[in-house]
């Protein structure tokens, strides 16, 4: 993350609490807390046929989030296609 400092500086100007990304072949969750504001960075598995490599099989899918009273839940992974 060569530009992490620049990205976090922009995020600190607003109350961003969740940043979504995609097209990695496995799900990844990272959380930063700066000045009392936690921001979650959630990468979700690629929406493609499940890749296989090195004895691993990743499941393709999407994340479903619910927002209630301005609070975003942890999300639920919804697998797509054959498992």
Structural overview:
- By secondary structure, the chain is mostly beta strands.
- Helix content is 10%, strand content 47%.
- It is built from 1 helix and 9 strands, in the order αβββββββββ.
- It has a 3-stranded mixed β-sheet, with no helix packed on it. Strands 4-5 form a two-stranded antiparallel ribbon.
- The chain is globular and about 40 Å long.
Gist of the model:
With 83 residues, this protein is mainly beta. Helices cover 10% and strands 47% of the residues.
End-to-end separation in angstroms reads 31 Å
Shape: globular
Major β-sheet annotation: 3 strands, mixed
List unreliable stretches of 5+ residues: none
Query: How many strand segments?
Result: 9
Number of domains: 1
Count, helices: 1
Rg over CA atoms = 15 Å
> Could you give the order of the helices and strands?
HEEEEEEEEE
Give the structural class. mainly beta
Strand content: over 45%
Residue share in helices? under 10%
Mean pLDDT, to the nearest integer, reads 77
Strand order in space, largest sheet: 1-3-2
List keywords for this structure.
83 residues; mainly beta; three-stranded mixed sheet; two-stranded antiparallel ribbon; 1 helix; 47% strand; globular
Topology overview:
Blueprint lengths: L3 H8 L6 E7 L3 E7 L2 E9 L6 E2 L2 E2 L3 E4 L2 E2 L2 E2 L3 E4 L4
Parallel strand pairs: 1-3
Antiparallel strand pairs: 2-3, 4-5, 6-9, 7-8
């Amino acid at each position: 993350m060569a530009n992490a400092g620049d990205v976090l500086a922009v995020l600190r100007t607003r109350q961003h609490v969740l940043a979504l990304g995609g097209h990695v072949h496995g799900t990844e969750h990272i959380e930063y807390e700066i000045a009392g504001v936690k921001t979650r960075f959630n990468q979700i598995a690629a929406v493609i046929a499940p890749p296989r490599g090195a004895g691993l099989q990743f499941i393709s899918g999407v994340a479903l989030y619910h927002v209630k009273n301005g609070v975003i839940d942890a999300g639920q992974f919804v697998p797509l296609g054959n498992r």
